[in-house]
Specification:
Elements: H1 2-13, H2 24-27, E1 31-34, E2 60-63, H3 65-71, H4 76-88, H5 98-104, H6 114-154
Antiparallel strand pairs: 1-2
Length: about 160
Amino acid sequence: IRYALYLLDQYATKPAGLAVPTDILTLGAVQLEHIAPQNPHDSISNAVVDPEMIHSFGNLCLLDPQDNLAASNHPFEVKCALVKKMKEAQPPHLLRFHLSAKVFESKTRPVWDNEAIQAREALLLNQLFDCLTYSFIFHRCRHSFFVIYLFVNFS
């Protein structure tokens, strides 16, 4: 799941030059954060999220360890406020992952509920399909062009 989210983040920020990420070794230090908390501090935090939705793909994002520690098991609204506070700090601290920042900076979703999780999951899966399709075609075509180049120039 981490790799899929990482690939999507790379695709979202650099779609024209997508390549297989080379810094996979550092991906182990990246952590998965549950947008709606896994173990909320209070009982009403996840009142709008069904328990089976907590571990779904649409409710997960990538964070660096220190950001994940700050987000902890806080409700969505608190996490949004934390991200805003980090951005306004001097010097500003920005989340490294574009898709994660987008979730917590969203002005369109004041609440994180089942509908938001399902919508994000559908969006991510569509983007993942596009990303993998593009990557496959790009690498396949590049290989084909190389074969044609060799044939034309050395036969």
